[in-house]
Amino acid sequence: MNVSEELIREIVMKVLQESSKPAVQEDFVKEKDPSGIIRIQTDTVKCEPFKQEGVALKDVVTLDEAPRMGCGIMELDHTSFEWTLTYDEYDMVIDGILEIEIDGRVVSAGPGEIIYIPKNSHIHFQTPSKARYAYFVYPADWQ
Predict the structure, then answer these.
(1) Burial class (CB in 10 A: 0-12, 13-18, 19+), 25
(2) Are 117 and 84 in contact (CB under 8 A)?
């Protein structure tokens, strides 16, 4: 097969055009090292409303960036919502008090504390005031 100089020039121009397009900008501070390491400044993450009033969240890594583990920030404001986990989850409280109700018992955590919730747990996420926490899920593609 003979490849013309014109075809090579066309391909190179396309590659250069694609690589010069600006990367998708996040609405929070996220730094990606070429090694795959990602640093996220959690206090810059703005959560978006979820299915219920008083609940907001924002996934902070994509499946392309982290195909095995998911991560995001969630905020609860004087609310409770029921959920059955189809994945394992760790929640690290940033601000406030997070309560996890299961089988009539409540496990609570404050800033700097971590709660682990095993897969297939049927729970109520709740908070007596406002809470902000980081969640880490495995597998990332849990839906």
Answers:
(1) exposed
(2) no
Q: Calculate the alpha carbon distances from 78 to 13, 18, 130 in Å.
A: 55, 46, 6
pTM of the model: 0.80
Whether the Cβ atoms of residue 11 and residue 23 lie closer than 8 Å to each other: no
Render pLDDT for 88-139 as a digit per residue (tens, 0 to 9).
999 999 999 999 999 999 999 999 999 999 999 999 999 999 999 999 999 9
For 142, residues 6+ apart whose C-beta sits below 8 A from its C-beta are 70, 86, 87
Q: Are 95 and 110 in contact (CB under 8 A)?
A: no
User: Cα separation of 52 and 56, whole Å?
Assistant: 8
Q: Are 65 and 35 in contact (CB under 8 A)?
A: no
Please list the alpha-helical segments (H only) found in the chain: 5-20
